[in-house]
């Protein structure tokens, strides 16, 4: 996946509130504004961080955390551009979410969460939450692009699993799109009137639609910036198949019980991502009508 050298979003934050990507350069700019130009210290440092947030460098090596923050920033920026375009076509305006990177645990409007929760979107504050361990999990534990990681090719190892990670981020942003379109609210209202099994089935349809939206994003972003490389779509499909409810149940030694599914089977997740990617049209992502 081609992502380096492109601008990033200013809507990525660390759980402490600092903009991701600012780092030492943001601090230096803040010091200059404060000591040389007499700007209020708090304003100076906030300005320094915002000026360097989302920036990327192709000349200086980054540790994993810095690299991952830049990657997230670029992917989020890509989702912003695509969904702004889609919402304009719908005669509406896209409201950008914030993506919060956290380490270990975090508090959100939906409650507290840990790294075990996995990436999630909270409609209460319209923010995507992503633990920094997510990247290592995708690279090493889910078997994403494992042949590249063991090849000894540093360039390929750096790219290994990039698009699979982008797919997961795009899926969570898909939930934000559902919130803006009113879908999430309708699902929550309907679930209150249903049994647990029926409510789970509705959740499955909601999750599969977010998968389809991730496919729509990939299609339209490819048209924008030609960011896909050979094998990227296979990465996303592999990731989708790895996190199906049936696959996760089998991996944990539990019985596969469809009434307990909340995200869909591996095949369903693959099918709906593919449908969105092939069409690039959210009108083809109606998972709430007919069979899934």
Automatic annotation (TrEMBL):
Q: Which residues cross the membrane?
A: 20-39
**How is the protein disposed in the membrane?**
Single-pass membrane protein
| Pfam entry (one) | Zn_peptidase
Q: Which key words tag this protein in UniProt?
A: Coiled coil, Membrane, Transmembrane, Transmembrane helix
The entry's cellular-component GO terms read:
membrane
What is its subcellular localisation?
A: Membrane
Write down what this protein is called.
Answer: Neutral zinc metallopeptidase
Q: Taxonomic lineage per UniProt?
A: Bacteria, Pseudomonadati, Pseudomonadota, Gammaproteobacteria, Moraxellales
